[in-house]
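Good morning C.,

I know you're traveling, so I'll keep this short. The sequence:
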Amino acid sequence: MGARQVPSPNCDERPDGCEISLLVVHGISLPPGQYGGPEIDRFFTNTLDTSAHPYFTEVAGMKVSSHLLVRRDGKVVQYVPFHKRAWHAGDSCYQGRAACNDFSIGIELEGQDDEPYTDAQYEVLADVVNLLINAYPGLSASSLAGHCDISPQRKTDPGPAFDWQRLRQRLVRS
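The tokens, ready to paste straight into the viewer:
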């Protein structure tokens, strides 16, 4: 499975000895509800033209990234190498551990909370998760959370339209 590489400057080194043990699923569309354009790439590379859409002024100056984006058509974009810390989780906590960026891989799905994700996205996401589980001993099929789970006061993605059961049915058992 290949991924188009779009390096983001919004990353840094993980803390020494920090094992990857969490996969965080996100949802994103820029502008909201619009798909397929270059805006997500520009947002994660700090090159978004904030005058191009009124919503962009709300995210102006944010320095964020994710390891991967799965577009509506199933194509994958990688912004940050997995061994580095992407800036996707923000203020977060999972099972009593704060700073989820330290120990997680962030995977964005092009979409929004209330709109079903595509068949291609579920297929590719399951393939990616299975590959990551095989590559990182700290991960398993139970190492999945939504942004809503790690930052419930701030975030709702991937939202109620995301079918967790559908994803989990395609994962290796571990």
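Safe travels,
E.
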